[in-house]
Amino acid sequence: MSKPKSKSEQNGVIDIAGIMDRIPHRYPMLMIDRVIDVIYGESCTGIKNVTANEPYFQGHFPNHPIMPGVFIIEAMAQTAATLVVASIEGVSSKTHVVYFMSIDSAHFRKPVVPGDQLHVKVKKERQRGSVWKFRGEAFVDGVLCAEAVYTAMLVPKNADSETPPAAG
Catalytic site residue 60? Predict the structure, then answer.
């Protein structure tokens, strides 16, 4: 699959404007800053610059800040959603939304802390219609911090007859 490149999407890189064109998330729930190594319809890597200013660090955990695992999984989902939308002509955050359907085999190996740069590698395992299954792995300095297998569904925003799964 291949889409024409926009200004926010060049040489296998999607910048923050391009991400926000493709997924509806905004601060404080936008968990990726850039997407690199894009192979349309197959794989990419999301980049998250983890800073001490993230709102969840106020309570997770004071004086010992650790990025919550659910947000690492959310970064995987947002990276995959950006790939899905970027891979299909005529699809954007204005026309479609990508919903989590399932999360399987999630494992957390190493804490992610302020100052880390998280590299979220996602690879499509399969696709049937609007349902995509991915394997995600999150790394800091080449060390595996978390991994999961998850499924998502691309749903048109005007799909009155469809009942989407729980939003994620």
Answer: yes
